[in-house]
Amino acid sequence: MSDHPPIPGGPDEITAAWLTTALREWGVLTERSRVFAVSIEALTERAGVNGQTFRLRLKYQGEPGPATMVAKLPASHPSARGVAAFQHWYERETRFYLELAPDSPLRVPEPYFAAFEGERTLLLLEDLGRLRQVDQVAGCMVAEAEAALDAAAGMHARWWGDEVIVDHPWLPLTTVGLDRARPVHGAFRRAWEAVRERVAEEAHPVLDRAVEAYPALLERISEGPLTLLHGDYRLDNVFFDGSEGQPGVVAFDWQFACRGRGTYDIAYFLGLDLEPSLRRQHEDALLLRYYERLREEGVTGYTLDACHRDYATSLLLSFAVFAIGAAGPPASERMGVVHEVGLERLAAAIAERDPDIFGL
Questions:
Q1: What is the model's pTM?
Q2: 39 beta partners
Q3: Reduced to 3 DSSP states, what percent helix, strand and coil does the chain have, rounded to the nearest 5?
């Protein structure tokens, strides 16, 4: 997979000839098939901050190939690309598809091409537009949260305490990387000053202390047992598949892939994706469900008390991600809403817990 044609620098360079060569080298097409026409349309609905996505519609001569696929390219804005390069987001996602996706129990889009060189990266992925996606702003139902937690538990159990993930040095500890804690700490402190008045006062005492303790919180979630984390596990990054015999959840957007305590993904999902009144009713039962799924998958030596402590720590770290996002100019009108709703929901989840659980 290391040999491939030059990586396109933009959608206009994804030509029929380039696709023919790339898809043949990846085994998607045989020598008896070629792409003779391709049309490209930007996918702007629920578009992310850190990249550009396009749907390709392809026509073939000879044996058929995928009628559509999704192309993912770096962000067009230089500042967004600079942050992505600093955090190695493009490299992480590409390497995930190349090195870890084949062994993931959590279903992911099939990769048709994945390459990363310098400032250029390109993913060609299975088009999942036929599947169902839930609006993150509206939030999901309990059954959907259960499916998402079950899928995450399977993935976490697969790499729980596994030295294999240590052999992938591109996987940082936590989504931001412990070696990058200092500049992100500064960003969180500035963001908190910017958004503090938009956050419920009940959460202020805990969050004031969390801002100062941010590096220690990162270290806490980096202590073993470690596993592979998605890192941005929320409704905007999953599809639900109701097909008989298929896994119920498909996760994409792996730019934040990292190592850490598995409960981080769970706190991120529940804190962001359940409307607060629904979360209050079902949060403890859902967390217990995740814990029991881990045990069913063979995880031992991890207590329920530790799971609850990790969950609380992860709510604070999740809040930091969304505070930093909300403090800057929104990439789109919808992302502005996503950040504001995220702040509200995470602050509520933090304010409603016993302050002692945070260990601040």
A1: 0.94
A2: 57
A3: 50, 15, 35
Strand-pairing partners, residue 60, are 35
Of 281, 273, 168, whose CA–CA distance to 229 is shortest? 168
Domains of the chain: 11-126 (3.30.200.20), 142-358 (3.90.1200.10)
Which tokens sit at 152? 């995450």
If we measure between CA atoms, which residue out of 120, 119, 147 comes closest to residue 132? 147
- For the record, the structure tokens of 187 come out as 């960003």
Which stretches of 172-261 are assigned E, i.e. beta strand? Answer: 227-229, 238-240, 249-251, 258-260
Question: Is 63 within 8 Å of 135 (Cβ atoms)?
Answer: no
Order of strands across the sheet that contains 33-42? 33-42, 51-62, 68-74, 120-126, 111-117
Predicted confidence (pLDDT) per residue in 198-243, tens digit: 999 999 999 999 999 999 999 999 998 999 999 999 999 999 987 7
**Tokens (6 digits) for 328:** 């800057």
What are 44-102's pLDDT values in tens digits? Answer: 765 666 788 999 999 999 999 999 999 999 887 777 777 778 888 999 999 999 999 99
Q: Is 242 helix (H, G, I), strand (E, B) or coil?
A: coil
